[in-house]
Amino acid sequence: MPHPYVLLSAAVSLDGYLDDTGPGRLLLSGPDDFDRVDEVRASADAVLVGAGTVRADNPRLLVNSPERRAARLAAGRPEYPLKVTVSGTGDLDPAAQFWHTGGDKVLYTTDRGAERARALGLATDVVPLGPALDWRRLLEHLHAVRGVRRLMVEGGGHIHTQLLTQGLADELQLVLAPLFVGDPRAPRLFGPGAYQAGRLRLVETRPVGDVVLMRYEPTAPGTGPLPVAADHHWLALACELAAACPPSRTAFSVGAVVVAADGTELARGHSREGTDPVVHAEEAALAKVDPTDPRLPGATVYSSLEPCARRASRPAPCARLILDAGVRRVVTAWREPDTFVAGADGSGVLAAEGATVVVLPEYEEHAKAPNRHLTGG
Ligand SMILES: NC(=O)c1ccc[n+]([C@@H]2O[C@H](COP(=O)([O-])OP(=O)(O)OC[C@H]3O[C@@H](n4cnc5c(N)ncnc54)[C@H](OP(=O)(O)O)[C@@H]3O)[C@@H](O)[C@H]2O)c1
Q1: Per-residue pLDDT at 225
Q2: Which pLDDT value is given to residue 278?
Q3: Of 6, 8, 238, 277, which is least surrounded by CB within 10 A?
Q4: 133 CA: nearest ligand 1 atom
């Protein structure tokens, strides 16, 4: 089930705190950065904060710029993004500004929390998600029922920690403010948890007034059948590589990336790469990895088209090459059509030998794009 693109947004002090312990909200950003945040909010379909932030900061979470609100309306969008909050207890102040400003609101909670929220008469839609709150279900609900494609998450630390450790955050927008808090009782951005091994990808740094914005993407593949945000990034890259293939009337254009469990890219390849007119993408990528590399058994292969199951031009199809390399997880966008081989089932070959195959159909059109001359449509 598709999820919205999830963007985590936060500002921290030089010593890594989200706030101090005083009664008011600590202003970490300056005017230029508040304006940048306003712009990001205006780009989002929904803005989410945890109940702890609603209680501590009493935020309104509006798009403040009239021009940005007008642009949203002109584009056929609501004037304000949907406001979303999350609470297990449902115990929130009915007078909080969150409920009484901006556009639509929704509270995701537990069954018990929903009883409490309704008893309090909170001015919001209340969506119970069962005895405990499940983030995947919440994101699926936002996508399917509320039409949210881009979700901005503005804290606090408990929310950011869960979304990042569960592999559900596509991007982290972190602002570093030039001040110290120095109080160990103050809330931190990220708490303890099972974070991805390895390094995130730095995609941008930018001074904004006296703060610095850093944007990061997670890199570590998932470990089972459930996709994580980094799986989406790597599969999108595989689809982009497919577009770089020399064109052919007799073979698909495919891109592939091999990624270690800690998010390190081991190799990439595409169809007909270099001087080999028949090489396949997965074959080209795997040929660049030392077959004794101990990271291969924990690696994931991303391929824009599912690995081939039968092949005339080489002794071994790509599904076999992947299994022989020891890789046990494959993420793909597009099941192979009957264009060249009837009933090809590379996913079945992989699964029969214990590999996990994850298909993300939301990338199918991207994978097909350089192959339109072969498949039509
Ligand atoms: N600097 C910044 O950019 C920034 C941004 C936002 C917030 N902040 C600061 O962060 C602090 C608040 O952060 P916080 O970590 O204490 O609170 P939080 O993350 O905003 O909210 C935590 C609350 O959300 C609910 N919740 C979270 N995960 C849940 C789950 N899996 N199931 C059910 N309910 C769940 C619970 O509400 P219930 O208790 O109702 O069950 C929990 O107490 C404040 O000091 C605020 O100023 C700073």
Answers
A1: 97
A2: 93
A3: 277
A4: 32
**289 touches 220 (CB < 8 A):** no
**pTM for the full model?**
0.95
Q: Give me the sheet containing 82-87, strands edge to edge.
A: 125-128, 105-109, 82-87, 46-50, 150-153, 5-12, 171-176, 211-217, 201-208
Average pLDDT over residues 106-123: 97
Whether residue 51 has its Cβ less than 6 Å from ligand 1: yes
CA atoms within 13 A on the CB side of 315: 0
Closest residue by CA, ligand 1 atom 41: 88
- pLDDT digits 0-9 by tens, 231-274: 999 999 999 999 999 989 999 999 999 999 999 999 999 999 99
Tell me the per-residue pLDDT of 133-163, one tens digit each, with 9 for 90 and over: 999 999 999 999 999 999 999 999 999 999 9
Q: Is 156 in the pocket of ligand 1 (CB under 6 A)?
A: yes
State the chain's maximal CA–CA distance in angstroms. 71
Q: Does ligand 1 have an atom closer than 6 angstroms to the CB of 133?
A: yes
Q: DSSP assignment of 260-303, as one string?
A: -TTS-EEEEEETT-TT-TT--HHHHHHTTS-TT-TTGGG-EEEE
